[in-house]
């Protein structure tokens, strides 16, 4: 009887210890989630063209979902899956979220973001931990989507009545050193209204009562049977529930529809300075030559310089969009000599960007020159930007005679610049373009 009494006391002590330890762990998770929510705000996940399914504590299952607008109105979206669970996954997710939001707001492209994310995770994560991820940029203005998939299940692009699988072509983040990391992306046409679905391996690895996995074939049957895109995630969730008889809480899915941004012109960055000091009379000129063009994106740096002029900040998104198009045209059609007419279909898109990568790697000469002039005018001021390239130029008169057609897949850059900046004009030889922006002093 005495031994049974001691055993009962031991069991009660262990029960109380386990309960206290469980409360401690739950409190740790609540604190970690509160800190993470401050670091990784929700971004634009609440946008009407984004639908997603994620458990409240998916962060502690290793899943991470982030979305944010670029200054030009494009959408960056990241779906990631860390190895492991609990606090280690949350700790790895926080620096990833910080890089994602800060670099997106400054206008960096996917390549620069991927290099920074991989380098940071490689530096801080232990050797047995890494991050599978799909990072994409949906641009309704340019009618395309740019995708990088490292170790994640296939995503699916539904465009023009056809479904394209976005397969993994890279190793996960945090595995390779910087010099071996491959940041090359895949670019596909995506018109307004087209749908794109991303998911984590929790969907495919859902196990039924007979120990069979849900798998790709069952998922594709759900995709084939879907008639209402806005109900796709709910139909997949129901298929998982029917397959195993109960809902799982470690499944993450996100669906995004391409649509034109309605907020272009609203600054994407919040500035903390007083606005009392502003450079109002200055000019600068930058010439970026072949070795720099191969691996450096100058636009965030030039834009940051321009945003020091407080009167321009309200037009920051438009300036960034116009400068991005002018730089892309100067690099791709001027320096690299690419023909925009290639981008008329899916195969043409793939061939165009394959040629772009090949010509950029082998580039030996050429330049893109960006000249900026800011001058006071009355109570406000004026900004003049001139972008020049070393290419062969183009027939300006013929291009200007075309209507402002933004619905075609190719040759949209000049039309977009003319729409956003009516003061834009091109030199007769087609090798340089000049745009002007003005502002009035705030009352």
The CATH top-level class label of the largest domain? Alpha Beta
Task: Tell me the number of structural domains.
Answer: 2
- In helices, the fraction of residues equals 25-40%
- The counted number of beta strands is 15
* CATH homology superfamily name of the largest domain: PPM-type phosphatase domain
Residue runs with pLDDT of under 50 for 5 or more positions? none
What number is the mean pLDDT? 86
Q: What best-fitting shape do the alpha-carbon axes yield?
A: elongated
Strand line-up of the largest beta sheet = 1-10-9-6-7
Largest sheet properties: 5 strands, antiparallel
What is the ordering of alpha helices and beta strands?
HEEEHHEEEEEEHHHEEHHHHEEHHEE
Strand content: 15-25%
What is the count of DSSP helices, taking H or I runs of 4+ residues? Answer: 12
């Amino acid at each position: 009887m005495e031994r049974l009494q001691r055993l009962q006391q031991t069991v009660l002590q262990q029960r109380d210890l386990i309960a206290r330890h469980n409360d401690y762990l739950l409190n740790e998770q609540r604190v970690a989630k509160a800190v993470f929510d401050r670091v990784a705000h929700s971004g634009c996940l609440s946008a009407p063209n984004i639908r997603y399914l994620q458990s409240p504590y998916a962060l502690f299952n290793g899943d991470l979902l982030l979305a944010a607008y670029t200054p030009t109105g494009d959408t960056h979206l990241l779906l990631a899956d860390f190895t492991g669970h609990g606090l280690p996954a949350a700790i790895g997710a926080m620096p990833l979220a910080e890089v994602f939001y800060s670099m997106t707001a400054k206008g960096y492209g996917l390549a620069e973001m991927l290099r920074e994310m991989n380098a940071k995770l490689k530096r801080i994560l232990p050797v047995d931990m890494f991050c599978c991820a799909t990072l994409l940029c949906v641009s309704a203005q340019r009618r395309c989507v740019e995708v990088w998939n490292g170790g994640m299940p296939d995503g699916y692009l539904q465009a023009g009545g056809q479904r394209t699988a976005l397969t993994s072509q890279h190793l996960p983040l945090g595995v390779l050193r910087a010099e071996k990391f491959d940041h090359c992306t895949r670019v596909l046409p995506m018109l307004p209204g087209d749908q794109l679905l991303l998911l984590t391996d929790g969907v495919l690895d859902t196990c039924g009562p007979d120990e069979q996995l849900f798998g790709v074939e069952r998922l594709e049957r759900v995709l084939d049977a879907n008639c209402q895109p806005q109900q796709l995630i709910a139909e997949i969730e129901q298929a998982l529930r029917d397959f195993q008889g109960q809902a799982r809480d470690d499944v993450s899915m996100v669906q995004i529809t391409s649509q034109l941004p309605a907020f272009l012109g609203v600054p994407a960055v919040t500035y903390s300075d007083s606005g009392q000091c502003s450079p109002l009379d200055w000019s600068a000129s930058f010439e970026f030559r072949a070795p720099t063009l191969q691996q450096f994106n100058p636009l965030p740096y030039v834009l940051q310089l321009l945003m020091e002029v407080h009167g321009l900040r309200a037009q920051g998104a438009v300036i960034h969009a116009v400068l991005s198009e002018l730089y892309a045209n100067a690099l791709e059609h001027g320096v690299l000599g690419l023909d925009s007419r290639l981008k008329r279909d899916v195969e043409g898109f793939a061939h165009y960007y394959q040629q772009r990568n090949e010509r950029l790697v082998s580039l030996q000469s050429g330049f893109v020159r960006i000249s900026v002039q800011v001058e006071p005018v009355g109570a406000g001021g004026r900004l003049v930007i001139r972008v020049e390239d070393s290419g062969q130029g183009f027939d300006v008169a013929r291009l200007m005679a075309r209507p402002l057609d933004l619905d075609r897949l190719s040759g949209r850059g000049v039309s977009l610049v003319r729409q956003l900046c009516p003061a834009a004009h091109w030199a007769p030889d087609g090798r340089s373009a000049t745009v002007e922006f003005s502002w009035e002093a705030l009352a």
